[in-house]
Amino acid sequence: MAVDTERVAALTRELLEAIGEDPDRPGLRETPARVAQAAVELYSGLDADPMEPLAKTIDVSRGPAPETVPTGAVLVRDLGFRSTCEHHLLPFQGRAHIAYMPGERVVGLGSLARVLDIVSARPQVQERLGEQVADAIHHGLDAEGVFVMLDAAHDCLRTRGEKRPDSTTVTIATRGSLATEAARAEMAAYVIIGVQNKTTDEPTIAGRDQP
Where in this chain does the record put each GTP cyclohydrolase I domain (predicted)? Predict the structure, then answer.
């Protein structure tokens, strides 16, 4: 069901009146229409299937000799995302780190970002968002394992209530072979390495002692 922009605009006008504003003053005349158009983008994931971007896969077992198959996880770090907290309809945004254990076929890296975009474009809670991304990849790719870490800042915590402007929330969702304690720790370590590299601008190589 598509967003009813006319109804959203009318309700936004009512909201402005309810908080004591004048929706007809110059600065607010176009606000209901703007909010309605923003809602189309913010909630576009309600009508989308997060597994659809995973339909087209790539056979990596065949190519220049020698032929081979993947033996380790594929990890994409630092995928930016934004979503809307369903409790207060305030935004939260941050970074996602997504890994999966493929078989003979993999998916384009942009497809993982698209799965994240679809699931994020809904009223959400962060815990569910990560689980839905993990489910889509696990079932859509028949992946042996999936790891999804989200690190996000929530305006409902930063700007109201407890007002903790520097806080972020980390959640982890796992499936299959990447759900073991050892695998979770390994994937988390690779994520931390990436964060350290960005912070220090110094190269860090996994598995090697640093001078």
Answer: 11-187
The annotated binding site for Zn(2+) is made up of 85, 88, 156
Fold assignment, 5-42? GTP Cyclohydrolase I; Chain A, domain 1 (1.10.286)
For Cα atoms 167, 121, 47, give the angle at the middle one, nearest 5 degrees.
160
Domain-wise residue ranges, the chain: 5-42, 51-200
C-alpha–C-alpha distance, residues 136 and 120, integer Å: 13
In this model, does residue 178 exceed pLDDT 50?
Answer: yes
CB burial of 183-201 (b: ≥16 within 10 Å; e: otherwise) equals beebbeeebeebeeeeeee
pLDDT at 60 over 60: yes
Counting residues of the chain whose pLDDT is more than 70, the rounded percentage is 90
As its CATH architecture, domain 51-200 has 2-Layer Sandwich (3.30)
Binding residues: 85, 88, 156
182 in the Ramachandran plot: left (φ > 0), alpha (ψ -120 to 50) or beta?
A: alpha
- 5-42 and 51-200 share one fold: no
**pLDDT band for position 69 (50/70/90)?**
confident
Q: Which residues pair with 80 in a beta bridge?
A: 95
